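By convention, the token line describes the chain's fold. To illustrate:
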Amino acid sequence: RYWAPLVAVFSGMRASEIGALSAKCLSSVEIDGKVYWYLAVDDSKTKAGIRDVPVHPGLIDLGFLEFCLSRANREGRLFEEWHKPKGKKFSEARVIRNFNDTVCASIGAPGNRPTFHCFRHTMQSAMIDAELSDPIQKAILGHEQDGMKEHYFKPNISNYAKKFCERVSFSE
């Protein structure tokens, strides 16, 4: 319950992707002498959703690396207590329904309330504000690349981790 909304807002990942993260999802890459951490998303609703998502410095400041590392020697999922409903996706799990029914229900008028999925839109807005290119945004959010320019963009974590971690920020 604690990590799901934080991972969503700092990564733009879908609820189903967060719930399905492997306990061994955390990796790092060194770019210009600095280490950047990322999550390997290997269970997504689309082929483009299989990707590496940089771990935002704000999430690191909250202790997310320690949490991931404490579970890295386990088999299975990172959030093993997050149960997937039978025949459904992790996005339809109780943890997401509870978030939408309690936290989101206290915000806005009925019919015009945010949902857990709004965190994806928040991240995309932050990336636009940080002037990250459209191909980088799509690589991080797991959207299909389109157009010729994007055709040549190779979504490799080394291409976008530094820009993402240095440019995307949230005001308090």
User: Anything to note?
Assistant: The beta strands are 26-31, 34-41, 51-54. The first helix runs from residue 3 to 11. Confidence is low (pLDDT under 50) at residues 148-152.
